[in-house]
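Model: You mentioned two targets. I'll fold them one after the other.
Researcher: Yes, keep them separate.
Model: Target one:
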Amino acid sequence: MHFRYDRGAVDAGRVLLHVYRALKEKGYDPVSQLVGYLLSGDPTYITSHAGARSLIRSVDRDILLEELVRAYVAGAAGGEGR
């Protein structure tokens, strides 16, 4: 299965960073909270601080996962993921 989406609509990487920072500001473990959200789809894993919950819900979870894999591969393989 291959997913395509309009990159201009929402930058998933920026959404993830914004949500990560908001979770950290509130004292949560951002990685655990993001994993919980991505696996379950339950928005209560994400704080409403700084609009993080609304923002993350504006992007499909499969798009967020695709961005995470792409960023990981780009970092681990010297840019192959982009």
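Model: Target two:
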Amino acid sequence: MSPPVFSRPLTFSEYNSLQLTLVKISKILAEEVIDAIDSEVNIPKRLWVRKWIKRRNQLGASNLLLKELAVEDPAEYRLFLRMTPEVFEELLIRVSPYIQRQDTLKREAVSERTKLEPTLTFLASGCNYRVLSHLFRVPKSTISKLLPEVLDAIYQNLKEFIQVRKLILKYIFHEIVLLI
């Protein structure tokens, strides 16, 4: 029998962290082996995630600009997202359980923060999906899927504070009449 690897039993969070690290290491090793095989067989590598999107965690607006604004210029942060950093954090806590996803072996999941910030930027500024994609380094197709998901989560969590006017459409002689 081999000696124990750790001097004490691992906590649940340490075990999860270790497991995640091992998954990441195995993913990197698998990619290296596949690259080595592909280079020998001369199979062109298919681009799974664009290089500039891979740098989301280092260079995206969530991890650079908005963190900087929250610390150095809260007034500008408020103009950007239409809320203070404290209100943003409170909203993030409320909607996170509804929008979080697990990482897969193929790619890292988009963080809840990186989902909520483009959504609020969209609501605050009306930026199109391509601008949001470039700013937050999230593919445009992902932006188009995450906006409705995050907006639904916001509505479900804040519906007692949100008033939605209900419109009734009625067709009369091929004209639309709005009854409010």
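Researcher: Noted. Anything on target two?
Model: Residues 12-41 form the longest helix (30 residues).
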